[in-house]
């Protein structure tokens, strides 16, 4: 769990750094446009496009990795709940009934 947390923090820091670099490149492009130096604009535009492409790839990869990790975690939790219900059917029925009574009482108060 600690490895996953440190990996997430490292990925978050990397994305923050990428976005800072991209932002800085775009600011440079805007400043260069005011100068109207054609070669300078072309170079800065190419840098901005490359950084944008790299950042987009990292964001997509991170999103896919988060989706996979979340999906696996949910699957494990569902499996654990399923095993618990199969191993303790009467306890599960009692918990369900208690939750139903509490929800019924809360709704009935309105």
TrEMBL record:
Residues 13-60, 82-110 form the DUF883 domain. InterPro entries: DUF883_C (IPR043605), DUF883_N (IPR043604), YqjD/ElaB (IPR010279). It is found in: Cell inner membrane. Keywords: Cell inner membrane, Cell membrane, Coiled coil, Membrane, Transmembrane, Transmembrane helix. One of its GO terms (molecular function) is ribosome binding. GO terms for cellular component: plasma membrane. Its main location: membrane. It comes from the Bacteria. The chain crosses the membrane at residues 90-108. Pfam families: DUF883 (PF05957), DUF883_C (PF19029). The keyword Transferase does not apply. Residues 12-65 form a coiled coil. It is a single-pass membrane protein. Belongs to the ElaB/YgaM/YqjD family. This is DUF883 domain-containing protein. It comes from Litchfieldella anticariensis (strain DSM 16096 / CECT 5854 / CIP 108499 / LMG 22089 / FP35).
């Amino acid at each position: 769990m600690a490895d996953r947390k440190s990996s997430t923090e490292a990925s978050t820091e990397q994305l923050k750094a990428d976005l800072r670099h991209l932002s800085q490149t775009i600011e440079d492009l805007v400043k260069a446009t005011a100068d109207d130096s054609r070669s300078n604009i072309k170079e800065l535009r190419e840098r901005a496009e490359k950084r944008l492409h790299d950042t987009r790839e990292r964001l997509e990869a991170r999103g896919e990795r988060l989706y996979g990790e979340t999906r696996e975690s949910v699957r494990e939790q569902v499996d654990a709940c399923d095993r618990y219900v199969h191993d303790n059917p009467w306890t599960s029925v009692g918990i369900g009934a208690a939750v139903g009574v509490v929800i019924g009482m809360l709704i009935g108060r309105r």
